[in-house]
Please model this.
Amino acid sequence: MPTPEQLARVKLLVTSPDELAYFFDQLTSPDWLPLLRDGGLLGDPPEPIEQGDGVLFPFWPASRYMVRIAADAPGAVAATLWAARNSRNPRVWWDAVDALVKMPAEHAIRFIPLIEGWVHHPWRLGLETSTAKLVLHLITDGARDPAIELARTLARLVRPEDWPQSEPWVVLDDYDYGREIPAISRALAVFGPSGPAVFVEQLEAFLAVERPERGDGRRDDLSFIWRPAIEDHEQNWDFEREAKLVIAIRDGFEEVLEGAPEELEGVVTGLLASAWPVVRRIGLHLLVGRGDQVPALVEKILTSRDILAEDHHRHEFYHLLSSRFGLLSPAAKRSFVDNVHSVADATAASVAGRWAEADPTITRKVVIRRWLSPISGYLGETDLADLEAARAETGEDPHPDFPSYHMSWMGSTSPLSSDELRSRSPEEIVDYLATWEEPEGFGPGHPSTEGLAQQLVDVVADDPDRFVPSAPRYLRLKPAYFDGFINGLQKALQNGKAFDWEPVLGACQVAIGKVDEGPAEGRDSTWHGAHMAVIRLLERGLEDNTGEIPLAARDRVWALIAGLVEDPDPTPADEERFGPPNMEPETYSLNTTRGAAFHGLFQYLFWHHRSAGMLKGWSIAGQDPEASAVLDTHLDPGRDPSVGVRAAYGWWLPYLLDLDPGWVRDRSAQIVGRAETDLERAAWEGFLFRGGPSTLALDVFGGTYEAYAEQLASMDAKPATRARAGEPIQFFIDHLVQAWLWLPDRRDLLPLGTLLASGKPWLVAEVVEEAGRLIGRTEAKDVSPELASAYRDLWTFVLRATADLEGDGFKKALAPFAWWFDSELPGEWTLPELLRLLERGIKPDPDFSVFRRLPSFAADHPEETLRVVELLADGGGERWTVQVHEGEIRKVLEVSIHSADDLIRARAEDVVHRLGRLGLGGLASLLQPPGRT
Amino acid sequence: MPDLGVTPEAVRDRWNPTPKRVLLREQLLKATTPRLTAYYWEAIRALRDGDDEIRYGIAGHALRELQNGLPNHLEVPEERGRLGDFFDWLQGQWSKLLPNRPAKVNAELWTGAEIDQPLGVFLGALHDKIEIYSGVNPRRREMHRSALGRLDPGLSRTPEAVQLAIVKTWMDLGDVFNKATHSSNTEEFEGAVETFEDFLIDRLAPKTFEKRDAIKALVQEAEGHANT
Model:
């Protein structure tokens, strides 16, 4: 047993919160409790600490100890926790509840009102699942009223003060609600029907909030949608909390009836009295498997016209009918059949005139078929004849027990298989396509035009030569089939199959002249869509591959392109709605007819050059004057205001620069200008993505580089970029850094200094990060001494240019040096540089880069690497940062802790202890003398 | 090596600048000032290299200065009242009252004598001084508690009983250093200096895992399963 003398030693030994926590974690004996309490060592529960927008909830080490000894010293623990009951710290609440779970229920009772407050507090921190355990514990201990009270608290729907603006909520999350509440309900069954009944009360309260009363005073809960079957069924969607309560109620009463079958009639009668259909359905469900125990009640229900007429009851009523109709007396059987006819008549009358297609006769027969089918074996001749007539006219209903049945499917279906299609001649196929009519309706397996067109793609792709002669005939079919034909040819090229272009180009020329007529709504395919297919086919045909379009067809190809580049799509209105910034300009250009056509035009230029033998000194204006003229025309914003089209220029700019630099130079002012307007930026950023900082590019676009740098330098924060696969700013910096590294004689002309001396920390950080990422991606074999030296020069340049930055801005700007550190640059330079930054209070970002690279330097630089760890540990406020890198830190310390230098060793041990305080307990083994485990 | 007096070299080796002391000096430098750090380092140097006649006095003085300088560095309002000052005042006043008054008879002094004006003034002043100085120790304790709490923020988040025990240890060390300036119990003093070093390490760079081992051992001892 602990003594006062030992307590006095504890006071001198345990002098920090961490040590106090460790001390309490070691305690196993309840004998400490009075000693610690009287000696003042329990302390008070720590209060929550509000920090900025958040709140920290410190542990109370004493309460965790009390949880452990609660079973051995329940009275003392309960009294101590009661004394701390006013704490605002949810961790204390949590421990209190965990401790109560381990004590006899009598100790918990006075805490119930407190727990009800805690569990609904916004800071409850998962207390609700502990509370669920406490409820189960109270039930086990026979504490009926407190258990029911707490169960009600857990299940309750809370209406926020500003309801209905805010959603009502429950304390348990959806997953826990579905797990805990049914378990509690089953456990509550030990108290008889009054146990699970607490959840009926809650379900009704939910429904009253979420399903307002109908005008006619009836309650309509739509449960046939959110809970089609009371039993577990694939049709059920158990996402809603109401559905989880249904399960809880069902299981709870099932459990009650398992132990006390005599309660059946009372339970079912009680449930059937509810105003809510779903509760009544639970009653019917309970009867389905147990109806033989209460035949009179079953008879009463099956002969109730009201219950039959309520469509909410259909599923459970149908199964009760199917399984128990035989129990009914002849008169009751007759009564049921009469009710069916009566309900059928009323239903038919209710639909008459409600909408145009409504057919009361059919409606009546559907009702007859539904309710007489399951009892057909008991029907007399007349009723049977009625049923047969209904079946003959309405067919079979595969799911008569569900008012609505959910199904899903994917894809389209063709009326013919690909083998059936292949077995026909091309002429027969066209005839079939021309005459086949899509049947009405939809659903899985339902054949459609789209499905047939998709089938056509594969058949054409397999043997394009067979189909090409019939190309003109596809122009007379639905555009979907022309589309399928063209896509089939494109797929054939993709698979390396050539075909005769002549009839295809001719058909395409006619196709691009076709326009869609009539309203777009309801149309299953369009000629506009077919134009896109033509462009894709052309693009594929202009590539340097098998099946390439021959140069002899140049005029026909140009005629097609010349037509397509004048397509009105995209209109300014469409571009406003769907174009940038909702979609990046380059992507948008590929998804509009005119934009895609311009991509085709540029490919046409390169195809011509390639097909003509890759001649040197190629002049676009000289060789393709008509194309050059079109390009010039569309550079006029008044003529073509599309950002998507201009992005296509930017996309191809690097290649045009190689093909004909003079042509680009003469137009650079119109294409990219100073990258100030949306059109100029679209082209410029497209160039940045695909181009590089060649000497030629720097000459031609020098003014744009400078102007873009000035724009960035004037921004106080990084601009938001939406729907972009890449960051234009990063690509721009890439250009400048690469030019700085590889074109040393151009350094003075580059606007890198404009970015670095901007005084904008975000921009400097971008430059430092991008340069670091660039070298980080470079393999060791490619990091030459010259490149390493250029990086050192660049860093010197960065430091000089940012000399005026200070404070947090300075720290933020240089923090991405971490990327440089995590590269193949020599550690002899990066390590001391990193230390200098750390000593100036700069926290490397991202820190994982530092930890990743650090161990590789440990063997050669034990003192410096240890110092890095020391400095990172000094910023121990962010424990997790070092915690997740324990492995890397260990590798560094392993070297220094075995150093022959006493001071390095002592320093390493010191760091191990310090990191131990930050939660890196595994490092303790580094301190173990050899042989000790 | 200069002549350091009569103390054997082996005894002085106790005060070598070990890595532990080098690191403590670094920690002090980070947490306090070069001047306060120098007091510590000079104390160790004096114990290692100082003349036997004065090395304890110098070390005690330096460490007391370090203790007394901490509150000021940590911006804790200083409690300047000292019971020594009170004694000095009492001794001076008393020596002025004694002449021309009856001598002590057995255990009694001036029994039945009239309280004249000088004696009355003295008693009045004594009353006030007792009022004032009775608060000195609690105030000094609070001052040190605040200073140590700022030096080691974790300490101020421990239960009050722990804080008071720690402050008492700190003040007791101060008493030992103070005594060393006029007389010295060498073993008590040298032990106190080492305790002082461990105390500061515990505040500035605690040996987490060693402390945990010690805590675990103490709990096992108290719960009666020391060998498990």
Chain A is about 60% helix and 0% strand.
